[in-house]
Structures are given as structure tokens and as C-alpha cells.
Write a structure and sequence with these properties.
There is one protein chain. The protein has about 775 residues and is an alpha+beta fold. It contains 29 helices and 22 strands. The chain is about 50% helix and about 10% strand. The strands form eight sheets. The protein has a six-stranded mixed β-sheet with strand order 1-3-2-4-19-7, with helices on both faces. Strands 11-12-8-13 form a four-stranded mixed β-sheet, with helices on both faces. Strands 5-6 form a two-stranded antiparallel sheet. Strand 14 and strand 15 form a beta hairpin.
Length: about 775
């Protein structure tokens, strides 16, 4: 349960990015002492902060009083603390308060895991507009990974970060150089180096070395497990998920968990003898004592290090094998499977997955008054501002802030000179800042899980790993033993998810999967109805091929029977042009079947640009061929009526054909150069969209109008010529049939254009309707 800051409690230490208790104490991790802020006058407002015991001391002693001073005593900050041992209680209180609409507290301070507890019930205030209006410049200074992923839920900003947690690889530079080692690139190399130095006496200090130091007591080792596992499960970025598949919530265990356990066993074999009983303090203390060779830790290990110049900082090792999600087996990494991997000439591709624990931040209760929300946001943005955050992230060596251990989370925290001025070693700082930039800029950055029941899930994995390591310590574990652990973990995780979803159905809440997808920013992408053409494409293509085949068949029949009297009278050259026009027009069906599934942006744009050409030129070929054909007959019979003999060849009547085609070509070329058609996706709501071809500007209207006038004029002229030919002998006259054909075209346009407009936002229907018309 929460306790007021006037309670006296025992000092504790928490692993950044996790929840763990130890009997060790440190200046930055002890519980809150009695409140030392008093005011002669009653404040106008009180901000009630609800938080874990961890970091509560600086909130009571420094952060709260500084904000009170900033407001000239107008506001008082009151902190209520939950002991670390009651982590589940902390999350439950936030969830229950959100579900019941309670406003007991104004601000919640924690790691981003709280987002999954309150956000699904609208328990946190949306700070998006406040930040855009009052904090935008400061907000954009925060690393994108923290402001876009950890602070947001379904596109809304729900947390203000004020501490960045990125897992780093630390090593003793003196030991590494003495034995002529290079920093390990893979977990195998990490264990190989640990094995070679473990239990050796280091001559310069005469100390017996430990190969690896990773505290693994309950609650402390989850980060190390997650880091190793993620390097095998995540290859395409956080949207893919590192522990659960964002598509269906499948636990990503199987072969990756088996290999992870094998790596952890070797780390323990060449690790500190007390790893299973110690927490993260072991990592830092062992490195400070210069008895440990390799370790993992959060950024505070650099900030608080007394070994300035002797502590090496680098990229956390990666894996040469990654999980095939279809088979559940590990496969060798290559550029296709691991697009973000690094290639080395001697070992090939290595997949790196930097693990960001999310740090700490503050959320505002969504169930308090608007005035109180604004005041709470002012408090959080004050503490997280460039000026104030610099005091904590880049503290003077030895100061009170120095022992708090806040990690960099802003771009303005990346200036090495600022650290050197405060007493930090330049070379060591360079390596630390480079590690941050490289990790947070990685397209394969791993994000801490923030879904409901995350505490239970973490506990299951942690207990299973600790029990396995305890069981196999000093013996050689078998793959079957590892598979048994993996099977149990998978079953337990699946049960937690199914139990929660069952309760969600009864209570009409959102299930875990959509929450997980929203937290990863892929909910719309994975659940969106894109109205893709899909398999209907092949039906449309089949109809297109049938039309083309029929046109070619008729064209072939005309060629074979060209000397037959009836065919000869029907003028084969124009019949061939009509068939060719039908083929060109029908070819428009194929680019209509292209969307953003399995095609490139360039390919889609090219398909869109080709449609006007195919439709307009196809119609022009048909209309101009019909016109020239009828005009030739009319000229002959008009001369005969005046008792004149005249010879009218096909060439004599091709001028209108050439003029119409040339005008169409000029207009189409101008349209393509000035305002080409491109493919775009249009959203009708959050989860519904459709793809369409649209022009880039407004000039298209003039081009469309010109083409419509040209081709409609040609159609009218065809009917005029057909009317003039109505009295010609039936053997030579085709006006009746051409008139029926053109009347059919008018009817089709009259009915078809409205139909095409109706199904415009359903590409699959459009594709089927076009060949039918």
C-alpha cells in the first residue's frame, strides 16, 4: 500500500528497468525521508504524486522543492510512495483507479510499464495538445525512441520521460588490453573471453578475476535474459515484437529460449559465485573493484563510475542465429533475414537488438479536473526540461544528483564537453555517448513490454530462468532440460493471456493483443482493412486475357479471310485497328490490379501513370478506325451519286485517324509530364483505407476534360457518318450495326460511370467492373 513521505523506511536498491529489492543501500536508492518542505502560507494547489520507492528521495528533497520555488510557493508537491516489494499493488492501484474513474492522485511516476495499466481505461490524460502548444521545442529534443514509443499509446502522448534507460556493455579496459582481447561482438565471444580470464590472477592488481558479473537475484536478471533472447527474436524492429509476436501475441520462445538458456548457463559458469543471490549492485560494484572483466548495465553505471578512464563502454553483443517464426527454429543470419545486421568478414552477419528499458517518466491522471491536469503537466515538463534535466543527467561528479543515476534521454545531453566540464573522462564519455546514439538510433531497437499483466509475465520468466540456473549450476544441462523450461514458460504465458482475455470479454474490456499492438504503434497497420484487391486480381486478369484473346482471334480471322468478298468490303485494315484498339484498352485492366501488396512505390506510380494512356489511346483507336471506315464508304457513294468515278484508298481517310491519335498523344504526354497520376492510400477512418491513383496537382482536370472532348467528339462523328451511310445497300452498309454498337457504348457510359464512382473506394470491385464494361 502507499505510504506518505513522512514514513521512515529502510534503504533499498532497484535495478534500472526492473523491480528488485536488496539489503544493500545507496544514496540514490533509499526511500523517502520525512518531508522537509513547509510553507508559512497555505499553497494554492497541491500536486499529489504516486510513485515507487525508487527515486522518491530526490522527488521529496530536490525535485518537489524546486518546483515549489519555481511557482513561488503557489504549489506544493506531496509524494506518496509504494514499497518496491509491492510492485503488483502499485500497478493494480493505477488500473483500478483508471477503471473506476478515481482522481486520488494527480501524477504517476514510474517506468513505462504503467501505460498498460491505465491507458486502456483512459486513466491517463492525453498531453498531446499541451505539448504542441507549450513544450514542442523541448519535446523534439527528446530522443525519438523515448518520445514516440515509450511515451505514446495509440498515437497519444501519455507520459513525459525524464530518464533514459539503454542497456550497455561494460568492460574493464585495462584487463581487456592486457590480454589483447577485442570487445566481444557476439554472445559466444562474450563467453569465450569470460572463460579465458575467469579465476586468473591479474598481475597489475594481483586480484583474482571474474569473467562475467551479472546479478541474477529475483527481479534483476530479466533484463539480461530479455537482451540475449531479443538478439535472436527481433530482426525487423520493435513493431515486430521481441518477446511476443505483434501479429497474434504468440510467445517468441521455442528455439530462441533454448539457446538463451544455454548462453546464460555459460555466463553463470564463468561468472561471479554469488550471482544468483545478488542484484544489479553486483554488476557495478564488481566493475568498480576492477575484479570483473565483462558486464551489462544501464547508463547510470557510467555516470556513477569512479573508474574514470578505465571503464570501457560498447555495444551489447548480438547473435549470428535468429528465430524463424514459422518453424520455431534458429537459422543463420543473412542480409534478407536480418536486414539490420552488421556484417563481419570473419564471422558473417550479426543481429544486434539494443534493449531500451524505457527509463522513468510521469503520467497525469485522466480523471482530475482540467485545471489540475494542466498544473500536473507543468510540473512534469518543468522537471523534464533541458535546463532542469541537465542537472540530473550531467551532474557534477560527487554531487547529490551524481548519485541519483539519471541516464541521457535528450539530444542536448549528447555534448561531450558538458560532461568533461563536470569532471567526467573525455574518452570514456565519448564511448558512452556513442553507445547511446548507436543504440537509440538502431532500427532494431527493443522496447520494454508495457501490456497489462506484464509483472506476472516477467515473474514467470524470471523464476523459470533462476530455477533452471540453480538446478544446472555445476552440471552440464541437456537440451531436453532447456526445452522443458521453454515449454513451461510458453504455456504459463499463454494461460495469462487467455485468462486476461476471458475476463476482458466478460467485463467488455479490450483484449491484450490490440493493446499490445497499440503500444507498439502497429494496431492500425495490422488490423486495417486496406481493401486490397487480393485474389480478385486474378479474376480481373483472367477477364482481361479473355477479351484480348477474343480480339486477337477476330483479328486473326479477318487476316485469314481478308480476300473474302464480305470481309474485303468491310475494309480489313480498319477491322484490325479496331481489334488492336480493344487490346490496348483491355491492357488497362492489368495496372488497375496493382496495389501496395507486393509492389514497389515506383511500380505503383508507373502503373497509375499508364492507365490514362491505355484507356484514351484504346478508345481513340476504336473511334478513329470506325470513323475512317465509314467516311471512306460515304465518300465513295457520294461520288457515285454524282456519276463520278473516284478511288478512295485507306490512306486517303487515315488523316482524321492520325490527327485524333496525335492530339491524344500530345495531351497524354503533357499530363504525364505536368501532373502525373500516382498511387496513394486514402483513409476513411482509423482502420479503413483504400488505394487509388490520383494526380499530384490540380492540372489534371484540364487534361481529362480535353481528352473527354476529343474522344466524345470522335464518337459523335462516328454516329454522324453511320447516319449518312444508313441508305447504302445492306451488303455494304454497316451503319445499323455500328449505330447499335455506339448506342451500347452510350448506355454503358451512362450506367458504368456512376457504378465506377460507387465502387471507387473498393479496388477489387473496380477491377471486376472495368472489364465487364
Amino acid at each position: 500500500m502507499a505510504t506518505n513521505t513522512t514514513d521512515n523506511t529502510t534503504g533499498i536498491l532497484l535495478a534500472d528497468g526492473g523491480c528488485n529489492i536488496t539489503t544493500a543501500t545507496c544514496n540514490s536508492c533509499c526511500s523517502a525521508p520525512p518531508s522537509n518542505t513547509t510553507s508559512e502560507e497555505e499553497p494554492e494547489a497541491v500536486i499529489k504524486v504516486f510513485m515507487f520507492e525508487y527515486r522518491s528521495q530526490e522527488f521529496v528533497e530536490l525535485i518537489g522543492p524546486r518546483f515549489e520555488e519555481h511557482t513561488n510557493g503557489r504549489v506544493k508537491v506531496d509524494v506518496s510512495v509504494v514499497p518496491l516489494a509491492e510492485g503488483d499493488t502499485f500497478l493494480s492501484e493505477i488500473e483500478n483507479g483508471a477503471r473506476l474513474g478515481l482522481g486520488l492522485y494527480d501524477v504517476f511516476v514510474s517506468s513505462p510499464v504503467i501505460v498498460g495499466s491505465g491507458a486502456p481505461y483512459n486513466g491517463f490524460a492525453d498531453m498531446t495538445e499541451y505539448i504542441k502548444t507549450n513544450y514542442l521545442e523541448e519535446w523534439l529534443d527528446i530522443f525519438p525512441g523515448f518520445r514516440e514509443s515509450f511515451s505514446s499509446y495509440n498515437g497519444k502522448i501519455l507520459m513525459i520521460p525524464f530518464d533514459g534507460d539503454l542497456l550497455h556493455f561494460f568492460y574493464n579496459k585495462n584487463i581487456l588490453e592486457y590480454y589483447n582481447f577485442q570487445p566481444p561482438r557476439t554472445w559466444q565471444e562474450y563467453n569465450d573471453i569470460a572463460e579465458q580470464v575467469h579465476n586468473k590472477v591479474f598481475p597489475p592488481t594481483n586480484k583474482t578475476l571474474v569473467g562475467s558479473c551479472l546479478g541474477r537475484a529475483y527481479g534483476a536478471g530479466n533484463a539480461w535474459t530479455a537482451q540475449v533472447l531479443s538478439s535472436m527474436t527481433q530482426t525487423h524492429g520493435a513493431s515486430q515484437g521481441s518477446f511476443f509476436d505483434t501479429k497474434d501475441m504468440t510467445p517468441l520462445t521455442s528455439g530462441a529460449m533454448v539457446e538463451t538458456l544455454k548462453i546464460l548457463e555459460m555466463q553463470l559458469k564463468y561468472g561471479h559465485p554469488d550471482e544468483l543471490n545478488r542484484t544489479i549492485d553486483l554488476n557495478q560494484i564488481s566493475m568498480e573493484n576492477e575484479e570483473c572483466m565483462l558486464s551489462l548495465n544501464w547508463g547510470h553505471a557510467f555516470v556513477q563510475s569512479s573508474n574514470q578512464g578505465r571503464l570501457g563502454v560498447g555495444r551489447v553483443p548480438g547473435s549470428q542465429k535468429v528465430l524463424d517464426r514459422e518453424t520455431g527454429k534458429l537459422v543463420t543470419c543473412n542480409k534478407d533475414i536480418c536486414p539490420n545486421a552488421v556484417y563481419y568478414d570473419d564471422i558473417g552477419f550479426v543481429n544486434y537488438a539494443p534493449f531500451a528499458g524505457g527509463g522513468w517518466g510521469g503520467a497525469v491522471n485522466g480523471n482530475i479536473s482540467d485545471e489540475k491536469k494542466k498544473l500536473a503537466m507543468e510540473f512534469l515538463t518543468f522537471f523534464a526540461s533541458k535546463e532542469e534535466s541537465r542537472k540530473w543527467v550531467i551532474p557534477k561528479v560527487g554531487s547529490q544528483e551524481y548519485y541519483a543515476g539519471y541516464d541521457a534521454y535528450r539530444l542536448s545531453h549528447m555534448n561531450v564537453e558538458d560532461y568533461v566540464e563536470q569532471g567526467f573522462d573525455r574518452e570514456q564519455t565519448d564511448a558512452y555517448l556513442y553507445s547511446i546514439k548507436e543504440g537509440l538510433a538502431s532500427p532494431n531497437l527493443v522496447l520494454e513490454i508495457r501490456i497489462p499483466e506484464v509483472a506476472k509475465m516477467g515473474s514467470i520468466v524470471d523464476i523459470a530462468v533462476i530455477n533452471h540456473l540453480n538446478t544446472t549450476k555445476g552440471i552440464t544441462a541437456t537440451d531436453q532440460m532447456r526445452r522443458d523450461v521453454m515449454t513451461d514458460v510458453t504455456a504459463n504465458l499463454t494461460k495469462i493471456i487467455s485468462d486476461y482475455d476471458a475476463r476482458a470479454t466478460i467485463e467488455k474490456m479490450e483484449k491484450i493483443l490490440p493493446q499490445y499492438q497499440k503500444l507498439r504503434g502497429v494496431y492500425g497497420e495490422l488490423n486495417e482493412n486496406k481493401n486490397l484487391i487480393g485474389e480478385v486480381r486474378w479474376v480481373g486478369y483472367a477477364l482481361g486475357f479473355v477479351i484480348i484473346a477474343m480480339a486477337l482471334l477476330f483479328g486473326g480471322w479477318v487476316a485469314i479471310n481478308r480476300k473474302h468478298r464480305v470481309v474485303k468490303i468491310s475494309q480489313p485494315i480498319f477491322l484490325h485497328l479496331i481489334c488492336f484498339g480493344v487490346v490496348v484498352l483491355s491492357c488497362a485492366i492489368f495496372p488497375l490490379g496493382i496495389d501496395d501488396s507486393g509492389s514497389t512505390e515506383r511500380g505503383r506510380d508507373a502503373a497509375c501513370a499508364s492507365i490514362p494512356w491505355l484507356v484514351s489511346l484504346g478508345l481513340s483507336l476504336i473511334f478513329s478506325a470506325l470513323f475512317s471506315k465509314l467516311w471512306r464508304i460515304n465518300k465513295v457513294f457520294a461520288a457515285a451519286a454524282t456519276m463520278k468515278r473516284v478511288v478512295v484508298t485507306a490512306k486517303d481517310v487515315l488523316t482524321p485517324f492520325a490527327i485524333l491519335m496525335t492530339l491524344n498523344f500530345i495531351v497524354l504526354l503533357s499530363w504525364t509530364l505536368v501532373d502525373p497520376m500516382v498511387f496513394e492510400r486514402v483513409y476513411t477512418d482509423e482502420l479503413t483505407s483504400y488505394g487509388r491513383c490520383v494526380p499530384q496537382g490540380n492540372q489534371w482536370k484540364g487534361f481529362v476534360a480535353t481528352l473527354a472532348i476529343l474522344n466524345f467528339t470522335a464518337l459523335v462523328l462516328v454516329n454522324v457518318q453511320a447516319y449518312h451511310a444508313r441508305s447504302i445497300n445492306d451488303e455494304l452498309s454497316e451503319s445499323k450495326y455500328i449505330g447499335l454498337a455506339t448506342l451500347s457504348m452510350f448506355q454503358i457510359l451512362l450506367v458504368g460511370i456512376p457504378l465506377l464512382a460507387i465502387v471507387y473506394d473498393t479496388p477489387s470491385d473496380s477491377l471486376l467492373l472495368f472489364p465487364a464494361l
